[in-house]
Amino acid sequence: xxxxxxxxxxxxxxVLRIKPFGAIVSLGDKTQGLVHISQVANSFVQxxxxxxxxxxxxxxxxxxxxxxxNKISLSxxxxxPSSPKTTKPAHFEKKLRSKEQKSNYENxxxxxxxxxxxxxxxxxxxxxxxxxxxxQSNERQAGLNKRANKRS
Length: 152
Description:
Elements: E1 10-19, E2 22-28, E3 31-36, E4 57-66, E5 71-75, H1 104-107, H2 114-117, H3 126-151
Parallel strand pairs: 3-5
Antiparallel strand pairs: 1-2, 1-4, 2-3, 4-5
């Protein structure tokens, strides 16, 4: 099998079958290999059918050959012509907004939630805490009693 195909070479092949995990590519004379879905393109591939279809002639790079199991691992991504690494794809460019374009919410200095998160005045000793708790408890109980009396 390795007489015709060697690791590291770029060859052309025909897509025979498409599976959810990759594409089976014929390299000629009963030699087939798998292009895993992660090796199809430089970007994330969710549906391999969007990139290749059965019968397509594709360039692939031979990644590995396993003689024992007769499996050949292929990559379409590594067979692509290399592009300069300094160039970023358009969807990676960061879009910055000036201060004038920011929404009104971002320009606010005082937010309504600030009052909610302010720490409450905490009584200094245990007895003051107990008095406050007892007062709150009595107020709650009085409110419950009023509701119960209205129903009666």
